[in-house]
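seq:
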Amino acid sequence: MVEETTEQDIGFALKEERKGERPGFHRLDIILSDKTEGPLHKVEAVELRVLSPATKQNATEVSKMTVGSQWNQEKEYKVVPGRVNLVSEEGKKLEFFTFGGDLNIRGGKKTTHCTLRSPAPIYSITEMESVTTVFIDEVEIMLAEEHAKWGDDDQNFWNHIAQIPPQTCYASCLVTLREKLEHNGYKRIQQAQELKRFLKQEIEYLGMEDVPQLSPLMEKE
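struct:
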């Protein structure tokens, strides 16, 4: 079993480990600080894509957002599937991937606390050799292919994907990749057998064999 990290030590923590010893977590806690004391490796910013709430002047829209330590309020956002980057004080990035979720941001005097929760797994993609990193690489290729079908209509693409429940998005990516690789072969994939086993086990664990594949799920309405 993977031990949960402590945000007081490294500025972030993966929490709520998935049941059944499955890879991934359901929660990512982050402390953003500009203080000299605090976490050993300070996280100075979080970069991710969110759905902004509607206002009287503007409808909801998806945009890239950077959250820093200078945050003086509490806000809630819906997070869109994609990467979540933690930027350290040295400028280095720790990368995670989410299939969507809810972000709570709580500002303090010199510290901002962020909590990302999702019913779908949150994966660390910093470890280059892990099977989950290989899986996420393939997911990003598939999402880019679907994005290309929308042409220049970026905003509606992101608005569309933001409305897909995280667990549905995750299951659809699993099923779509399994079918794609069974049709085209696994030869070009690193850790092919591990990935094949991972897809089979995750689909069986979720019990969502009948979920639509990405193309019909991402089709313009």
